Amino acid sequence: VPMTTLTSLDSEALNRLHDTVRAEYEAFKARGLKLDMTRGKPSPEQLDLSNPMLTLPGNGDFFAEGNVDARNYGGLQGLPETRALFSQMVQAPADQIVVGDNSSLALMHGTIAAALLKGVPGSKAPWSDGAPTFLCPVPGYDRHFAICEEFGIRMIPVPMTGQGPDMDAVERLVADPAVKGIWCVPKYSNPSGETYSEETSRRLAAMETAAPDFRIMWDNAYSVHHLTQDHHTVPDILALCAEAGNPDRAFIFASTSKVTLAGAGLAFFASSPENVRWYLERASFRTIGPDKLNQLRHVRFLKDDAGLERHMAAQAAIIAPKFEALLETLEAKLGGTGAAEWLRPAGGYFVTVDTVEGTAKRIVTLAKEAGIALTPAGATSPYGRDPHDRTLRLAPTFPSLSDVRAASEGIALCILLAAIEKQTGDAPGLS
Ligand code: PMP
């Protein structure tokens, strides 16, 4: 039944609806389900797509191009054929890419640690000499914010607009020399799903920053993770920065965690030639070389851009129906009620739902009591504090399709119940 806006109901109608929704919620709870919509993890079926990799490069195939023995030490920057294969995905020339081990998060953590201790090209002093500060577009990725907290980097939230961060605010804030960087997930952003516009990217590349060593942490984690035929693109940030006279401004990060194997993929750092030299020098103190067999394995398995594209289409075929199920359920249960707003993402791993102000924590509690694990309310803001207590991040990829359906129903009920409670002024009295 299409519902009317909650706020248009008189108190009698609202009380009746409260009783109905509470009864539905109790019935859901009585099903005793155990569902998890917390983390953006690939499902077992997605990982199965990469099972052929488990026997690659194979017993006897360990020579990379130029007769490089992939079993041995060395090759700090990564195999040339691996860098070439991922050049389009990473959006950087192969000679400006470094292949790390399996986690791009580790590369972000490492570059920031090095910046704090030693500075980056353009630094007059290590970042830790001042009161280093990062701009954090909100909603954003909790693990980015956690790196800042871990290292004592102050965070300033900046709202997202649907086209990336509010650039008027960003341009104002970078006039402070303490502001050393900004977190960006430019395509199918975690968690809003939005893609930065050309204008946003240009302004980021060209803006005047008081810090001469300002860095854009361009985490293109979802670069090839399309859910529809409408494949979003983002501009070549390295080229934009170079054109604007800020060639060293962007650090690009990416990985195959959600392409091949989340725990055994490849991570990439890419930047200007100067930054790549800086990075490789830092890396040279940390390791004698990366796992080149895994690099070779990825080349043997994906082969070329067409192979990568086919593989990602197979991924989308598995996860798009889960997004569809979630979005359909939200629409059916909440459409027109005013209890929530959400965007339909064209890629990535998340759906962000904005609920009635002041209800997100309550929704997470209600969901937990009904057997659904949700990401803690506030996780998408720096310090875990959502000043509006309204943003939920839903991750539908890992559970089975039927579990996603069930969880979505339960979540919609919790959202609706919390909105009604808020409006009736009911103290939460549910066990
Ligand atoms: N960046 C973003 C935006 C992510 O969403 C994730 C995974 N949830 C990561 C980085 C982690 O990537 P990796 O597995 O390469 O460490």
What does this structure look like?
The chain has 431 residues and is α/β, with parallel strands linked by helices. It has 2 domains: 6-46 and 309-424, Aspartate Aminotransferase, domain 1; 60-303, Aspartate Aminotransferase, domain 2. It contains 14 helices and 14 strands. It has helices at 11-30, 44-48, 80-85, 87-90, 104-118, 142-151, 167-173, 198-206, 237-243, 273-284, 292-302, 305-334, 360-369, 401-424; strands spanning 35-36, 63-64, 68-69, 97-99, 133-138, 154-159, 179-184, 215-219, 250-255, 267-270, 340-342, 351-355, 372-373, 391-394. The strands form 4 sheets. The protein has a 7-stranded mixed beta sheet with strand order 4-10-9-8-7-5-6, sandwiched between helices. Strand 7 (179-184), helix 8 and strand 8 (215-219) form a beta-alpha-beta unit. Helix 1 packs antiparallel against helix 14 (401-424) and helix 13 (360-369) crosses helix 14. The chain starts with 10 loop residues before the first helix and ends in a 7-residue tail after the last helix. The model has no long low-confidence stretch (mean pLDDT 96). The structure holds 4'-deoxy-4'-aminopyridoxal-5'-phosphate (PMP). Residues 40, 103-105, 141, 185, 190, 219, 221, 255, 257, 267 line the site of 4'-deoxy-4'-aminopyridoxal-5'-phosphate. This is Aminotransferase. GO terms for molecular function: L-aspartate:2-oxoglutarate aminotransferase activity. Keywords: Aminotransferase, Transferase.
Lay out the secondary structure:
Layout: H1 11-30, E1 35-36, H2 44-48, E2 63-64, E3 68-69, H3 80-85, H4 87-90, E4 97-99, H5 104-118, E5 133-138, H6 142-151, E6 154-159, H7 167-173, E7 179-184, H8 198-206, E8 215-219, H9 237-243, E9 250-255, E10 267-270, H10 273-284, H11 292-302, H12 305-334, E11 340-342, E12 351-355, H13 360-369, E13 372-373, E14 391-394, H14 401-424
Parallel strand pairs: 1-13, 5-6, 5-7, 7-8, 8-9
Antiparallel strand pairs: 2-3, 4-10, 9-10, 11-12, 12-14
Helix pairs in contact: 1-14, 5-6, 8-9, 12-14, 13-14
The chain binds 4'-deoxy-4'-aminopyridoxal-5'-phosphate.
4'-deoxy-4'-aminopyridoxal-5'-phosphate is lined by residues 40, 103-105, 141, 185, 190, 219, 221, 255, 257, 267.
Keywords: Aminotransferase, Transferase
Protein name: Aminotransferase
Pfam families: Asp_aminotransf
